[in-house]
Amino acid sequence: MIACLWAPSLPLQALLRAEPELRGQAVAILEQGQVTAMTFAAARQEVRPGMTATAALAVCPHLTLRTPAREIVRAAAAALADVAYGFSPHVEAAEPGWIYFDASVLGRLHETAQDLQKAVLAAAQRVGLSVRVGIGSGKFAAKLRARWREVVVGVLPVEALEPSPEAASRLARWGVRKVADLAALAPPAVGRRLGEEGARLARRARAAIGGQTRGDDPLCPAPAPLRFEEAIELDWALYDVESLAFVVRGLLERLVARLHCRALAASALEVRLALDPRGMHEIQVPLRAPTRQVATMTTLVRLAVAAQPPDRGVTGIAIVARPAPPATDQLSLFDPVPPPPETLQATVARVEAIVGPGHVGSPQVLDSHRPDAQRLIPFAPPRTAAATAPAGPHKVVALRWLPPTEELDALAKVQGARVTAHAGPWRLSADWWREPFERDYYEVRTVSGAIYLVCRNLERWQVVGMFD
């Protein structure tokens, strides 16, 4: 069982996918000076394929004529392939706008062919494409059903088999006008009169009607590509970050829709900005965890661009997402539900983008005699909630390390408050083989009741911590 996806007028759909504000307007695609496709609003104004730009504007003055960039059409074709890869790993990309995939094992998920068609149509709509779906025993039978929307293939005209003009003329003289009429003839006999093409047409007709794959081209699947890229060319240069973020959000929405089809998420982003009049500005945007949150990724890209701004106006944007499986978590039956790993890591990434790299993480105490020996490691909470012991009646005193501040005499006055009591000293000596570290530590209490940790280094007094 083969399923066929056909996206009619793929360049037009690619343009509407990249610029959704054009939907519902009179828009036509102009290639080599002629109109090749148009929207329904333009067709109602008598715009037809083959018209020149002047003729099309004459019948429809408010017509929008566009030639989509190759990057936009390429991304739309990749999105169509992603829809197919979301249903089967055996996918073949034929001519532009046509995709075939193996649907023989999908009966366990979709009981009928209509259910499979509805699922494929919904998946294509999520990525911004309108497709036709055909399901048949072979590639050509599926293609016929996708193009003609007919369940009974035999009633289709012979032209549906794509014969050459000469072969179509001779078949018409024979009185063969339907696919069923040609299927009734023996392929060897047709081949003796029409040559190799006639035999091929007869075999196609029999395969399409009889449900046989013999005589049909075999499915030639290709490995699923792991490159997800969306790009857009701008009509004018952008100079401010907020306008750039507005365009970036649309690109990320289309990227996330494609990743969702493949059950993947983005683990890193590569942003390429085309500069005016020429040049490229590349920015790497790492993500703490694979995510599909468009708002978070938009914020990270905006902050990354603000940290590394281009020196000229931006005339084009391309974003490449590095795919990865989404983060999952095994929940417990009795513990509170923790935040999803994707949401938690996305929040950490947004905080790190604001405060700067290297300033967000989990503190780790080092094996040293120095009391303040610690470092930051990447924040990685446990995947499951750890069992916590019931809190006892005793109180816990915590020491909060403070940025060292100088004091004249910490045993007499600290932070402007008079010292009423102190304990110490406790001498610490460490790292004599690298940089000698020798301190005398005291605990002091002020008249306000606050308890501080102070140290003396030679003749200098410093406040280094506070007990909470």
Description:
The protein has helices spanning 10-18, 40-44, 53-59, 70-85, 113-126, 139-148, 165-174, 179-183, 187-210, 241-261, 294-307, 341-355; strands at 2-6, 27-31, 34-38, 64-66, 91-93, 98-102, 132-136, 228-238, 265-275, 280-291, 314-324, 362-365, 374-377, 399-407, 413-414, 417-430, 437-446, 451-457, 460-467. It folds into three domains: 2-210, no CATH class; 226-370, DNA polymerase, Y-family, little finger domain (Dna Ligase, domain 1, 2-Layer Sandwich), CATH 3.30.1490; 399-467. With 468 residues, the chain is of the alpha+beta class. The protein starts with a strand and ends with a strand.
Task: Please supply descriptive tags for the structure shown above.
3 domains; single chain; 12 helices; four-stranded antiparallel β-sheet; 29% strand; Dna Ligase, domain 1; elongated; alpha+beta
Percentage of residues in helical conformation: 25-40%
Strand content bin:
25-35%
Strand order of the largest sheet: 14-19-18-17-16-15
Number of domains: 3
Mean pLDDT: 84
Beta strands, count: 19
Largest sheet data: 6 strands, antiparallel
What low-confidence regions span 5 or more consecutive residues with pLDDT below 50? none
Coarse shape: elongated
> What gap, in angstroms, lies between the N and C termini?
70 Å
Global Rg: 34 Å
